[in-house]
Design brief:
The chain is of the alpha+beta class and about 260 residues long. It has two domains: about 1-145, Sandwich (Jelly Rolls); about 155-250, Orthogonal Bundle (Arc Repressor Mutant, subunit A). It has helices at about 115-125, 130-145, 155-165, 170-180, 185-195, 200-210, 220-225, 230-245, 245-255; strands at about 1-5, 15-25, 30, 40-45, 50, 55-60, 60-65, 70-75, 80-85, 105-110. A hairpin with a 2-residue loop joins strand 5 (about 50) and strand 6 (about 55-60). This is Helix-turn-helix transcriptional regulator.
Length: about 260
């Protein structure tokens, strides 16, 4: 499986984190962990499916995915390819009319938001591109045509930075107090931009930070305690919901991104 990551144009950098081109010559199933970014996936060729409870569902040619609390299994058939637009954590609200918080745990066709004829034409043009540069240019032209506002929210941007700085290990009430805003008002503004509550967002950050440390058997519980867990059953439950596997199964398999 081949991956290549590209940086967006300057006009889209306030909203888009990256484009990732994925190409698979063989049939591969990937475990996709929850992240704090919305994603827009364009299936360029071949068959790409979502596997849930042993049931396989073919993904649409364009799929928009909100924040998730659990991992997903994505199957790439041989000779398939896709490009993923990964939005910045406060960037997606600039493009889509639907409030981001309504898309938590959702994956829906792009045509749910824009005219079917427009999306069908975009998909047709993408199928005719000759290289990745042409593909990205088409996607960027589409995204630029959909920007409805360009304002940022410095308070929410600061809150996100604070959450990442402590790997999600903080109290939301304390975070709101540090930003001189009531917790209710803070949570509404946060959900409006990120698509998740501050608590949900911090939980995703925390579990990803722990996984990145790739703990050995000897350091595992130390790292678990450092990340705010004081009993193993509680951690094991959260970890399995997040990854779909026990810690032992997950770190042994190594097939995730």
């Amino acid at each position: 499986m081949n991956f290549a990551t590209y940086i967006p144009s300057e006009a889209l950098q306030p909203f888009v984190k990256s484009y990732t081109f994925i190409e698979s010559e063989q049939t591969v199933t990937n475990r996709i962990l929850p992240t704090t970014s919305f994603a827009l996936a364009f299936r360029l060729r071949g068959q790409i499916s979502y596997i849930h409870n042993s049931h396989t569902s073919l993904l649409p040619r364009t799929t928009f995915t909100g924040l998730k609390k659990s991992a997903r299994l994505i199957n790439y058939e041989a000779n398939s390819a896709a490009i993923i637009v990964l939005f910045k954590e406060t960037g997606v609200a600039a493009f889509f009319p639907t409030p981001p918080q309504l898309l938590f745990e959702q994956s829906v066709p792009l045509a749910n938001f824009f005219p079917i004829a427009e999306i069908s034409l975009l998909e047709q043009h993408l199928a005719e591109t000759k290289n990745t540069a042409e593909t990205i240019a088409l996607i960027e032209a589409f995204l630029l045509s959909k920007i409805s506002y360009s304002k940022t929210d410095p308070l929410i941007t600061e809150a996100i930075a604070n959450i990442h700085a402590v790997n999600g290990n903080l109290k939301i009430k304390g975070l709101a107090n540090s930003l001189y805003i009531s917790q209710d008002a803070f949570e509404k503004r946060f959900r409006k931009l990120t698509g998740a509550t501050p608590k949900q967002f911090a939980h995703i950050v925390k579990l990803n930070a722990l996984i990145r440390q790739n703990p050995s058997d000897t350091s595992f519980m130390d790292i678990v305690h450092e990340n705010g867990y004081y009993d193993q059953p509680h951690f094991n439950k959260d970890f399995k919901v997040f990854t779909g596997q026990t810690p032992k199964e997950f770190f042994k398999s190594g097939k995730f991104w």
